[in-house]
Amino acid sequence: MAEAIVAGIVGNEVVQVEDVCVTDISETRLEHFESGYGVRTSANNAGAVADADVVVLSVKPQIFPAVWPEIEASLKPDALVVSIMAGIPSAKIASGKPVRVVRVMPNTPSLVGEGAAGIAAGEFATEADLELACKLLGAVGVAKIVKEEEIDAVTALSGSGPAYVFYLLESMLEAADAMGLEKGISRELALATVIGAAKLMQESGEEAAELRRKVTSKGGTTAAGINTLEERGVKDSVIAALLAAQARSKELANG
Ligand SMILES: NC(=O)C1=CN([C@@H]2O[C@H](COP(=O)(O)OP(=O)(O)OC[C@H]3O[C@@H](n4cnc5c(N)ncnc54)[C@H](O)[C@@H]3O)[C@@H](O)[C@H]2O)C=CC1
Ligand SMILES: O=C(O)[C@@H]1CCC=N1
């Protein structure tokens, strides 16, 4: 996920490349960042954050307790901490100190400038901190300010969301394959369908249900498809999936 953000902000020159330092425990990842984006890299978290104005925490939430003490110990007192970690509350990061934390829940389409991110201020974050986070994430897609208690829902909707869309595409393409369509052609048609449907909804301002109704001729092919989805409880399953993702995000808060 960090790569998607680095690619976007460096590509859009929101941040100068020489001002970005990426840390990782994987030498391969560091080489990838260095050769792919020209950023500085380091295997030393504490060293890298020592002179950083903004520290973006992008390890897995489960690793946070292991890495945070060394990072926190070398943070500049006025550093802003931007966390993209799912679940971990800003108060847990600040751990009783007045650390300025902004939580961001981005998604991987940021890599191609089409991201969707929710941004929430922790207790000590300022308006300027929120603006900076919006500028960083706004460079790689849509960025919306939300309350911190809404971040678990944003995680379920747009953080995990690309995976649901890819799941739908996987399923559509499996079906196309079974119907004997050539793979290259079905890939292009399926992608244009998803992008086109999203664009139509965006540009028309109409509700999804209304746009769906307009495709569904009485007694026609779409009705046959939608009826099958309804019979099999797909809508309920999608709702349950988002609620499960939100619940998991809340669980991650407790480690
Ligand atoms: N993948 C996604 O679509 C999204 C992920 N996130 C959040 O982003 C964070 C990272 O997730 P991914 O990018 O998917 O995981 P990832 O596993 O691809 O990246 C995590 C990186 O952290 C590195 N790492 C592990 N231990 C480290 C340490 N001690 N010091 C420095 N680096 C270390 C790993 O080598 C790896 O390159 C998570 O907290 C996740 O909740 C948020 C939104 C979307
Ligand atoms: O699956 C996860 O936990 C992360 C957070 C949102 C997307 N990926």
Question: What does this molecule look like?
Answer:
- The chain is an alpha/beta fold.
- The chain folds into two domains: 2-148, NAD(P)-binding Rossmann-like Domain (Rossmann fold); 161-252, Orthogonal Bundle (ProC C-terminal domain-like fold).
- Helices cover 55% and strands 13% of the residues.
- It has helices spanning 2-11, 27-37, 45-49, 64-74, 90-94, 127-138, 151-159, 161-178, 183-204, 208-215, 221-231, 234-252; strands at residues 21-23, 40-42, 54-57, 80-83, 100-105, 115-121, 141-145.
- Strands 3-4-5-6-7 form a five-stranded mixed β-sheet. A two-stranded parallel ribbon has the order 1-2.
- Helix 4 (64-74) links the parallel strand 3 (54-57) and strand 4 (80-83).
- (2S)-3,4-dihydro-2H-pyrrole-2-carboxylic acid binds next to helix 7.
Q: Please outline the major beta sheet.
A: 5 strands, mixed
Look up the CATH topology of the largest domain.
Rossmann fold
Describe the global form: elongated
Neighbour order of strands in the largest sheet: 3-4-5-6-7
The count of strands amounts to 7
CATH superfamily of the largest domain: NAD(P)-binding Rossmann-like Domain
Radius of gyration: 21 Å
Domain Pyrroline-5-carboxylate reductase dimerisation: 148-252
Enzyme class: oxidoreductase
Pfam families: F420_oxidored, P5CR_dimer
GO biological process, one term: L-proline biosynthetic process
